[in-house]
Amino acid sequence: MSKKSTKYYLITGLLSILPVAATYWITFHLFNFFSNPGATIVDFIFKDKVPDYVPELTGFLLTVIFIYFIGILVSNVIGKRIYSWLETLLAKIPIVNAVYKTIKQITTSLSQPDRQAFKKVVYIQYPREGLWTLTMVTGESVNENNEKYYHIFVPTTPNPTSGYLLYIPQKDAVETNISVEEGLKIIVSGGLLASDKNHIPAPHGTE
Known about the structure:
Strand order of the largest sheet: 4-3-2-1-5
Helix content: 40-55%
Number of helices: 5
Distance between the termini: 38 Å
Largest sheet: 5 strands, antiparallel
Shape: flat
Oligomer: single chain
Radius of gyration: 24 Å
């Protein structure tokens, strides 16, 4: 039986604790982000007369209630007009309008249950022939000769929210039976969660 090295145990321990630590970090900062506005109000009213945890919890609940009422407001006619006016105002501000439009497009895509941001997963030869990259299809189109193209998003590892947009002929893409969720897991893990069978076609002239 081979003896494991110190480096092996360090890497194994790091990979084991990283998901827990990342989950805690994200949850902690999201909680603070949503609780701080309300907590400031509670602190101002009660002037340190309540336990330390009360302002944060109360602030979080107040923020959730505030978001809920914003949802109600935006859902009615008057709220929609106000929201439209704010969007028009933001559209006139340089840089801010580009950021807002990008975020709005992403949230709109994710909020529509009948429309997925990524349609399917395909392989393409990128960044050069012979190198295969796992990519996401975001749409389809045709050129002037009526040739079919895929709109391809090439995500980066381990952060799939950034990447490159490519237009590629559908005949140059290799279809897969990989689901979008599985594809994202493979990308985020840097290939650690990939299957033993990748289904990449063999080079021409080989069996």
